[in-house]
Amino acid sequence: MDTLRIKGPARLSGAISVSGSKNAALPLLFGSILFDKPVVFENVPRLWDIETTLSLLASMGAQSEWNKEAARVTIWPTITKREAPYDLVRRMRAGILALGPLVAKFGEARVSLPGGCAIGARPVNFHIDALKQFGVTLDVEEGYVVAKVRGQLKGAHIVFPQVTVTGTENILFVATLAEGHTKIENAACEPEVVALGEMLRACGAKIAGLGTPVIDIEGTSLSQPPGPIVISPDRIETGTWVAAAVATRGHLTIRNTDASKLSSVLDAFRAMGTEIRVPDPSVIEVMPGNNFLPIDVQTAPYPFFATDMQAQIMTVACLAKGTSRVRETIFENRFMHVAELRRMGAKISVRRNLATIEGPVQFKGAPVMATDLRASASLVIAALCAQGTTQISRIYHLDRGYQRLDEKLKALDVDVERVKE
Ligand code: EPZ
Fold first, then answer.
1. Does any ligand 1 atom lie closer than 6 A to the CB of residue 307?
2. Rounded Cα distance, 280 and 75, in Å
3. Fewest CB atoms within 10 A around its CB: which of 22, 23, 241, 379?
4. Among 117, 203, 318, 385, the one annotated catalytic
5. Centroid of ligand 1 to alpha carbon of 93 (angstroms)
6. Do 334 and 313 fall into the same domain?
7. How many domains are there within the chain?
8. Where are the alpha helices (DSSP H) in 275-353?
9. Is 225 in the pocket of ligand 1 (CB under 6 A)?
10. What is the chain's percent helix, strand, coil content, to nearest 5?
11. How far is CA 201 from the centre of its chain?
12. Do 14 and 131 sit in the same domain of this protein?
């Protein structure tokens, strides 16, 4: 497992370009199952999770071609096996996104339960309960969800007990091809859900209310996508670069992004005293700051502060003068980065889902361990501010969601090295 060695302190100044969004790409790639002819995707990020998704599709019989330089993926959705195997789904819980398209297209699926992960149990009961309302019978056998449709899928009235991003995405797939009307209440409003809905609408789906908590769908048939499906910029990668620029007091221009998709994140950093300019909707300019104000932030479903940015802003809060509070309301165990940040000098106390941060501290380089995707990003930010060298182990977590972060850092003159173990 590779380790990232970073020598701090660094100051991120210059310009970087954001890659395509992991969380937008995954549902769209699984959506290729709905079609009969080849589907082309552009601006696809080079991530392990994309690799895993293409392997999952290949295990079902779909061939794919990935031109990594051109960031283009072509999928020939010749599905011969309606199963998503455990050894791949356990690597990437988003493999559950095979369930909706397989049920919608073929009326049957055998998809491994994803199992838990570092940030929580992350069950899929909302997905299963919602599918049952379309007339799908679902049983759990040997760790697999076995789904079967008797006759025709029928539209349903779904009320999710809690906002679920991939749960909403799975239901969008099924409702699009079900007979009659579906209403989803407490639907996820994340931009990635909207992007999926807009792709389906471009293929003839009748969907209203995307981006709001109530989505109405009239079942219909789908035509082939009219052209390549372009993956939108990664709003969490963008937010991570903003956090790193703020933390290192750098002057960073972030290109190829969409500032409108992370307003609550930009507002939080502005509330900490940072000047952030948006000269163009696709450009964010972080101005060098000098002292940070403490912040109270609570994660919540979009459009509020993203849980996927919680670890990153916690690192910045360690540098603020005073007491900051971070409350995590989405996942029950998403403070795994706290212990590692403490090893670098952070003063953070945790009580249930509330972290209290005392600052400012001066981070010191240390050997630390990545535990999950966004926690590893928070450790990189701390390492950039630290005095001395930090070794971050298990950075496959980072590679799952950030395209060649070490190379992008190196291009900003950071003293960083990937050490293969
Ligand atoms: C998506 O995960 C994202 N992943 C996550 O990003 C993100 O953190 C999360 O949404 C919340 O925004 C992808 O889009 C691939 P949920 P998802 O269903 O859909 C509970 C990253 O860093 N729940 O919205 O799996 C669940 O345990 C990843 O890129 C149930 O209890 O999350 C959690 O507490 C991490 N039963 C909450 O709801 C269910 O059936 C929200 O989960 C489903 C969810």
1. yes
2. 33
3. 23
4. 117
5. 9
6. yes
7. 2
8. 310-317, 336-343
9. no
10. 35, 30, 40
11. 22
12. no
The domain containing residue 168 runs over which residues?
22-230
Alpha carbons 302 and 296: distance in angstroms, whole number? 18
Residues 269 and 415 occupy one common structural domain? yes
Determine phi and psi for 72, rounding to 5 degrees: -120, 135
Q: What is the mean pLDDT of residues 261-287?
A: 97
Q: How many whole angstroms from 113 Cα to the centroid of ligand 1?
A: 14
CATH of the domain at 380: 3.65.10.10
Burial status of residue 8 (CB atoms within 10 A of its CB: 0-12, 13-18, 19 or more): buried
- Is residue 183 within 8 A of residue 157, CB to CB? The reply is yes
Q: Whose CA is nearest to atom 8 of ligand 1?
A: 308
> What is the pairing mode between strands 367-369 and 354-359?
unpaired
Q: For residues 159 and 140, give the distance between their C-alpha atoms in angstroms, rounded to a whole number.
A: 22
Which tokens belong to 201? Answer: 């609408």
Mean pLDDT, the chain, whole residue set: 96
Q: In terms of domains, do 171 and 262 share one?
A: no
| Shared-domain flag, residues 166 and 294 | no
Residues 7 and 120 in one domain: no
Q: Say what the pLDDT of residue 116 is.
A: 64
pLDDT digits (tens, 9 = 90+) for 247-256: 999 999 999 9
**Using one digit for the tens of pLDDT, what is the confidence trace for 163-184?**
999 999 999 999 999 999 999 9
pLDDT at 75: 98
| Amino acid present at 420 | K
Summarised one tens digit per residue, pLDDT across range 87-123 is 999 889 999 999 999 999 999 999 999 866 677 777 8
Model pLDDT, residue 1: 80
The predicted-structure confidence for 114-140, as pLDDT tens digits, reads as follows 866 677 777 899 999 999 999 999 999
- Asked if 138 and 166 sit in the same domain, the reply is yes
Atom of ligand 1 nearest to the CA of 128: 40
